[in-house]
Design a protein that fits this description.
about 130 residues; 4 helices; about 75% helix
Length: about 130
């Protein structure tokens, strides 16, 4: 994080997530192709999450005074869990609007849009990890 900066990791992760979701839209069909399509996209998804998760955790606690470091971390964990629950609820509601692979496509498009929004919000983050 010191080398690339929080903002850059968040942006890279958001872009990778958008690319992954758009790849699902383009390449996933009703015919399974686990090795040539699904696995590479899962690797891309893992890279996206690997960029974002630690950068978000660092962002949440970087300006907390030492006496409130644990509280800042706990608030971050709580927000992440609530966000995950709400995100799954939204995704299921979107996917239920269509039948078959159409529901998945609607979900992937929604996730791509939300990831793009996340990238825009990431621009508000500081470039580097704060030094103490």
């Amino acid at each position: 994080m010191h080398r690339f900066g929080l903002r850059n990791l968040l942006l890279i992760g958001s872009v990778l997530f958008v690319v992954c979701q758009l790849s699902f839209l383009v390449f996933v069909t009703e015919t399974p192709h686990p090795w040539s399509r699904w696995i590479p996209m899962m690797v891309l998804l893992g890279l996206a999450i690997g960029c974002v998760a630690p950068a978000l955790a660092a962002s949440a606690v970087q300006h907390a005074p030492p006496a409130q470091f644990a509280l800042a971390g706990a608030l971050n964990s709580t927000a992440r869990q609530i966000g995950s629950a709400l995100g799954v609820a939204v995704l299921v509601a979107v996917q239920a609007t269509a039948v078959g692979i159409g529901g998945y496509r609607a979900g992937w498009a929604t996730l791509a849009g939300l990831a793009a929004l996340s990238g825009v919000i990431s621009l508000m983050q500081p470039r580097a990890v704060a030094s103490h």
